Amino acid sequence: MKTSQTANGESFRWPQPETARVPYQVFVDPAIYTREQEQIFRGPVWNYVALDAELPNPGDFKATFIGDTPIVVTRDREGELHAFVNRCAHRGALVCREMRGNRNTHVCAYHQWSYDLRGQLIGVPFRRGIEGKGGYPADFDPTTISLSQLRVATYNGVVFASFAQEVEPIEDYLGPTQQPWFTRVFNRPVRVLGYGRQFIRANWKLYAENTRDPYHASLLHLFHTTFGIYRSSQGGGVIMDDTGRHSMIRAFKRTEIAERAAYETTALRTYQKGYTLADPSLLQSRKEFEVELTNSIHSIFPCLVIQQIFHTLATRHILPKGPDSFELLFTFFCYADDDEDMLQKRIKQANLVGPAGYISMEDGYAAEIVQQAIVRDQDACSFLELGGVEASNVEDLVNEAAVRGFWQYYRHIMDF
Q1: Of 179, 278, 373, 390, whose Cβ has the fewest other Cβ atoms within 10 Å?
Q2: pLDDT tens string 236-293
């Protein structure tokens, strides 16, 4: 069994069996959280930062985070995308204080140092002083100063950034098993419909687990089970990449009789046979994709979730805010060539997810009640043996294989 050191120098040992036990310490320990910022978010990964459609014009920008480091994504006058750390090279203040917009330059509010769209320093007030007094030395050269630059890559209109110079190409990072599912959703230009933000008082990895866990979906979410959006008795399964870091959960309809049979003999709270919708048009759908799925939840390590639930499409960006809190940013989108009927379906079904969604608001609560319960017993572990102890692809929805895959890769990249 391997023993590692946490950032505060204390020893840390992952319990056995390594793929099926997760020590609660990883959800609460500040030293482990600090280690994640260096080993994961500044490590050899591609971090989701934006949709290309959020920055269509020169000068467009989006302020976001990689881990808990603030960054800015910009499009320059030549149409090229850039990303840099949102921290002034002078005294460390945030340079960009808006979420998104369009600017020719970015100016720090503190001393008005200004930067171009690539993050290069272009303006320093009173650089030569006033009336021969003060100012910087004669050899001060602004061209040698810029905001910390990140690598940027796009894949089918999705923008990623990385601190690491040695990170593999984005195509290799996604891998051959995930690219087709990524392309299934991002198959043509998209248009952003809006945003939802949700602050959750729990560790970010509890949500990373949640989106890789098909077991909970029909047991936590009444709306899923009662109205047949997702049931564990549907067809589907889990497909991972070779490392286990990315996973795709897919579900598709069987017959209503076959799906209900597994629930009608139980007393599950989340299956209510007598419930009906006052407005059934909420769940009206029509064929859209070549591979028709009621749900596809595609998790790209570390913090991107691509969601298709019926016709609502969104990216979910997990933004860690400390050992015991994270923010969840939903970016809802449609296709640029959607007709009016499909557009209205996407907007109406967006009510299924987001901070007040009929389905996903419960995920945030589930993460919080775990965080509340584990804080004092860090040596205890979660139990992840549903469907075995392996982290491999499965053709059912009653397993925790993708959760085990996440932890398998987490241990690798954290050197635990």
Answers
A1: 278
A2: 999 999 999 999 999 999 998 988 888 888 888 888 888 999 999 999 999 999 899 9
Specify which residues 328 forms β-bridges with: 198, 318
Helix (H) or strand (E) holding 314: strand 312-322
| Under 8 Å between Cβ of 352 and 312 | yes
For 29-70, the pLDDT digits (tens) are 999 999 999 999 999 999 999 999 999 999 999 999 999 999
Q: What is the pLDDT of residues 110-126, one digit of tens each?
A: 999 999 999 999 999 99
For tokens 């630059």, name the residue: 149
**What is the pLDDT, as a whole number, of residue 144?**
96
User: Residue 145 has which token pair?
Assistant: 């100063």
| Residue 85 CB contacts under 8 Å (≥ 6 apart), including other chains | 69, 70, 71, 147, 148, 150
Number of H helices, E strands in the chain: 10, 21
First to last CA, the chain: 10
3-class secondary structure, 199: strand
In the structure encoding, which two tokens stand for residue 380, read together? 């205890």
What secondary structure letter does DSSP report for 267?
Answer: -
Q: Are 105 and 114 in contact (CB under 8 A)?
A: yes
Tokens of 144: 């040698």
Report the distance separating Cα 81 and Cα 157, nearest Å. 12
Spatial distance between the Cα atoms of 8 and 11, rounded to a whole number of angstroms: 9
In angstroms, the CA 193 to CA 343 distance is 9
Determine if residue 345 is left, alpha or beta; phi over 0 gives left, psi from -120 to 50 gives alpha, anything else beta: alpha
DSSP 144: G
- Is there a contact between 128 and 135 (Cβ–Cβ < 8 Å)? yes
Helix (H, G, I), strand (E, B) or coil at 373: helix
Which is nearest to 317 in space by CA: 330, 301, 300, 333? Answer: 330
In tens, the pLDDT along 73-90 reads 999 999 999 999 999 999
Task: Report d(CA 218, CA 259) in Å as an integer.
Answer: 11
Specify whether the CB–CB gap between 337 and 81 falls below 8 A: no
Determine the distance from the C-alpha atom of residue 233 to the mean position of all C-alpha atoms in its chain, rounded to a whole number: 27
Residue 103 phi, psi (nearest 5) = -140, 150
Tell me, yes or no, if the pTM score tops 0.85.
yes
Q: How far is CA 193 from CA 73, 269, 297, 345, 409, in A?
A: 19, 34, 19, 12, 34
Query: Residue 7: what pLDDT?
Result: 52
Given this model, what pLDDT does residue 8 score?
57
